[in-house]
Amino acid sequence: MPARLGIIPDRYARPLFSGLLELRDTVIELVQDTPTRLAIQLRQAQLDGAFLSPIDYAKNYSHYHIVPDIGAVSEGESGAALLLFRENMQTMKTLAVDPNSSSEIVLAHLILAEKYDIMPTLVPFEGSSEEGLKRADAVVAVGDTALRLKTHTNKLDLVDEWKDISDMPFVHGIWVVRNDSLSDSVVAKIAESRDKGPNSMGEASPGYDDLSISQFRYDLDEEAVDAMNEFFRMAYYHGILKDIPEVKFYESNDRDILSGNPSPN
């Protein structure tokens, strides 16, 4: 039976999925949905692994492991997570949020509380950012929606604001697998899929030249892990997480298999 893996539709994450798309319907079955909905399916064992936001990992981390070395990370004005304001807004009392964007909701909360001493009332909604601005003073825009609105005048780039308060990049998503649900070879395929996308120098591979590749990297290095841990600590401090989750990486019995160099036997 093929392993069931969950992926998201947003363009910034596509470079991580290229190799998996080539394998679907053979050793892998792919399910595309939002990170939060994928998190529910993973928690209910309907998926073996999924590309989740850090917050969705944190909520059930005792049952999961993170595939090492790969993730979607940006820094500065990446345009992948924005806070859009109503024109001529004076005071932000309400903030429209899509419940499917859990990490970005937490990111907005941390930035508004830490940097601006603002605690707006959250207004859950699903729809366009324009609809969100009809319901609240501001709205969180994420992924493809945010990239489409990068030229919006009244906005804050949440990743850039995170850099300002933490001096760290922001981790948008990571590959998470259920404990003991996948073979080493399938986890290796997940890791290898990154090599089909942009290379480690941030250069675009064919088909990805419409992305702001220079603002994204796809390696979960030590700096990115430290940034994720800081994000967890701040979320715990603000009462969003009930504890500080352990960042647990998948460990193969074959030390080389995740690097694409399995041992001869």
Short description:
The chain has nine helices and eleven strands.
How many β-strand runs? 11
Share in β-strands: 15-25%
Which segments are poorly predicted (pLDDT under 50) over 5 or more consecutive residues?
198-212, 260-265
> Which descriptor suits the 3D outline?
globular
Helix content: 25-40%
Question: Would you list the SSEs in sequence order as H and E?
Answer: EHEHEHEEEHEHEHEHEHEH
Report the CATH topology name of the largest domain.
D-Maltodextrin-Binding Protein, domain 2
Please give the domain count.
2
Task: Quickly give the CATH architecture of the largest domain.
Answer: 3-Layer(aba) Sandwich
Count of helical regions: 9
> What does the average pLDDT come to?
87
Which homologous superfamily in CATH is the superfamily of the largest domain?
Answer: Periplasmic binding protein-like II
The secondary structure category is alpha/beta
Sheet of most strands: 6 strands, mixed
Round the Cα radius of gyration to an integer and report it: 18 Å
- Biggest sheet, spatial arrangement of strands: 2-1-3-10-4-11
Distance separating the two termini: 24 Å
Under CATH at level 1, the class of the largest domain stands as Alpha Beta
